[in-house]
């Protein structure tokens, strides 16, 4: 082979490698424009993610061997697991990894430090560590107040350690985030529940901005029938500088900073779910897209079900996946499971992932590979 032939072959190989890299990148993320109207709860452009850098198959989980009667959901905070139940003392706390019981707390009642309904530990609650104590700020949906639950003193004394932080918040908020002292993000139903609008509440004053207005344009035509199409779980990054909105019925989610420095609509399919078209789909044939979302220091994770409503209620066909992204919205990895479940949380200290299935009440633990480094 001549020198010229070798050079041509080398150039061709380099070109092929570059093309392969380019195609792989294009297949991972590409950006497309979307119509700016009330049918889409999106920003100006959508980042479509249809491939993850890493995919891990997670083996079947192991039943925990404990009976969690009345369990609704759970949250892992440092070395503790908080299990939400339906009992009058509706939060049960366990020590990880042995799951030793540390007691049950928070009472139902009409008093100022009692709850009208059991609070779900993974929703409208902000857990944080303060000087060797774990606290939970809990928004009461039906009372419009904010309670601070001190976990460590409660465990030590065997009784609730509660403080009333705010007593004059709006009632029946769909989403609620604590941005700072007397500073909140909220999402509330409006216009006969055909809209679910976002606002900032600071020192009692309600306001919006151009970024929130862009998402607030979305609406459905019949609130009673179609309100669930816009239902979401909204989470705050640990640094409290980014907001993540996951939608149960839509094949995309939004990640943004309130100052506008970040605003991304991230879709997992190229054809976005259109609210006006979804309204025409019979309820049993609508997709149950996402079920849960959890946030961590360096990443967030969404539970992707992609199950038809009729199959979810009878015999499920799509095994769940956990999709992991960094806080800029870049895909990190996908975990593919062999068990059905509806909520999850990572115990990163012990490299475990716990899963709970509300359909069967099965609570399992799975080994978690070193996937997040």
Account of the protein in words:
This is DUF4221 domain-containing protein. Pfam families: TolB_like (PF15869). Keywords: Signal. 32% of the residues are buried. By secondary structure, the chain is mostly beta strands. The strands form six sheets. A six-stranded mixed beta sheet has the order 1-2-20-19-18-17. A five-stranded mixed beta sheet has the order 3-24-23-22-21. The chain has a single domain, classed as Neuraminidase (6 Propeller). β19 and β20 form a beta hairpin. 14% of the residues lie in helices and 44% in strands. The protein has helices at 3-28, 151-157, 210-216, 223-226, 275-278, 309-313; strands spanning 29-33, 45-49, 54-58, 62-63, 71-77, 80-85, 89-95, 100-107, 125-130, 133-140, 145-150, 162-166, 175-180, 183-190, 195-202, 205-207, 232-236, 243-247, 252-256, 263-267, 287-295, 299-308, 321-326, 331-337, 343-347, 352-357, 362-367.
Secondary-structure blueprint of this entry?
Elements (H helix, E strand, L loop, with lengths): L2 H26 E5 L11 E5 L4 E5 L3 E2 L7 E7 L2 E6 L3 E7 L4 E8 L17 E6 L2 E8 L4 E6 H7 L4 E5 L8 E6 L2 E8 L4 E8 L2 E3 L2 H7 L6 H4 L5 E5 L6 E5 L4 E5 L6 E5 L7 H4 L8 E9 L3 E10 H5 L7 E6 L4 E7 L5 E5 L4 E6 L4 E6 L6
Keywords: Signal
Organism: Algoriphagus formosus
Pfam families: TolB_like
